[in-house]
From TrEMBL:
Protein known as: Dihydrolipoamide acetyltransferase component of pyruvate dehydrogenase complex
Organism: Sphingosinicella soli
Keyword Acyltransferase belongs to the record: yes
Keywords: Acyltransferase, Lipoyl, Transferase
InterPro entries (UniProt xref): 2-oxoA_DH_lipoyl-BS, 2-oxoacid_DH_actylTfrase, 2-oxoacid_DH_E2_comp, Biotin_lipoyl, CAT-like_dom_sf, E3-bd_dom_sf, PSBD, Single_hybrid_motif
Length: 407
């Protein structure tokens, strides 16, 4: 038998088995998608490790799948299938008295609903009786519910088994209430955020930054970058400035362990990307210290597009050593503290750019000018660094952006 394992590059996140794409007994080809896993960051397919026949499923739908865990096993394609087990005699529920253990027993396969399937049928107002289950033993999967909903939309004339009208709820004392079940991504994000603030003492420092120089450079060069397949966004400048700041305060690019601090040569910068109501995903620009501004912009253009199309792989969101939260794109001037992505040591926040009146010295004389300004913040794990390293890092970051050459 050939083991099918959960990929190790889960970056410490908890994966959940979303659905099996094959059933026991199905023939599969090497690298053919076999099972879908879902984490707080990405949904990924696990391919078949070889040609064969799916012989066993060890972790079924909604089971937690830690890195390296055994998902199932393949039988070599040329190996004869084992004899089918004798069917168990059917026992009518009415013939056996119910015991306390029955409450924890598995119901009939066709009617058994996992937590995610229960949420799906409630969300779409689906009667499970009308859904054909394709899971093991006829179990209903979330994909079955989604297919049923799609079919129902295409054939509105077909109606489901009517349900008796429920009694009206008691009148609310104040306003209406909309109940929205948590999806897996939101629950995973919640666990990660709580774990981070519980683990690390968060401290935030805030500087102000003049974006005049990078705005002038972008205006002059964005068309040339576009011709090279890159959208020249401000985030590309932020990543480049982060690289220079890491050289001034290397401990920011680190991870805390109980017995040591690991400071990394590679600067792998994650960029928080909003997915609307679906939450947040953080694609990682690997090895930013080796990239030019054009290289950074090209990498960002590709990764952000794939993030919004749901096409990122597990490797695209793993290995980060530092994170940028560009929260200002949605209008906020300052957010503090921005929660650190564990086990990283810091996270950068970029606030909204707005024109503000500032004082600048020109020829030895103070002048009042209008400049595009933004608050930039660095939230650090105070176990790792102190105020000196934090302010050194931010000073260098601001200096690089404010003195960006025009050419």
């Amino acid at each position: 038998m050939i083991d099918i394992l959960v990929p190790y590059e889960q970056e410490g996140t908890k994966a959940i088995v979303r659905s099996w794409l094959k059933a026991v007994g199905d023939a599969v080809k090497e690298n053919e998608p076999l099972v879908e896993l879902e984490t707080d960051k990405v949904t990924q397919e696990v391919p078949a490790p070889a040609d064969g026949i799916l012989g066993e499923i060890m972790l079924d739908t909604d089971a937690e799948a830690t890195p390296g865990a055994l998902l199932g096993r393949l039988r070599p394609a040329d190996e004869a299938a084992p004899p089918a087990p004798e069917p168990e005699p059917e026992v009518k529920a009415a013939e056996a008295p119910k015991t306390a253990a029955d409450d924890n027993a598995r119901p009939a396969p066709a009617n058994w609903l996992s937590p995610s399937v229960r949420r799906a049928v409630q969300e779409h107002d689906v009667d499970p009786v009308n859904v054909t289950g394709t899971g093991r033993g006829g179990r209903i999967t979330r994909n079955d519910v989604e297919r049923h909903v799609e079919a129902r939309a295409k054939a509105p004339a077909k109606t489901e088994t009517p349900k008796p009208a429920a009694p009206p709820p008691p009148p609310a004392k104040s306003g209406g209430v909309t109940s929205v079940p948590h999806d897996r991504m939101r629950l995973a994000i919640a666990r990660n955020m709580l774990g981070s603030v519980t683990t690390a003492p968060h401290v935030t420092a805030v500087f102000e930054c003049d974006f005049s120089a990078i705005m002038a450079h972008r205006k002059r060069n964005k068309d040339a970058f576009a011709a090279s397949g890159a959208s020249l966004t401000f985030t590309a400048y932020f990543i480049a400035a982060c690289v220079e700041a890491m050289r001034a305060a290397p401990a920011i690019n680190s991870r805390w362990f109980d017995d040591r601090l690991e400071i990394y040569d590679d600067i792998n910068i994650g960029v928080g990307t909003a997915l609307g109501d679906k939450g947040l995903i953080v694609p990682v620009v690997q090895g930013a210290q080796a990239l030019s501004l054009l290289g950074i912009a090209q990498r960002l253009t590709d990764m952000i597009a794939r993030a919004r199309d749901g096409k990122l792989t597990g490797g695209d969101v793993s290995g980060g050593t530092f994170t940028i939260s560009n929260h200002g794109v949605s209008g906020s001037l300052l957010a503090a503290p921005i929660i650190i992505s564990q086990p990283q040591s810091a996270i950068l926040g970029i606030g909204k750019t707005e024109k503000r009146v500032v004082v600048r010295e020109v020829g030895g004389v103070d002048t009042i000018q209008i400049r595009p300004m933004a608050y930039v913040s660095l939230t650090i794990d105070h176990r790792v660094v102190d105020g000196h390293q934090t302010n050194t890092w931010l000073s260098k970051f601001v200096e690089v952006l404010e003195n960006w050459p025009l050419a």
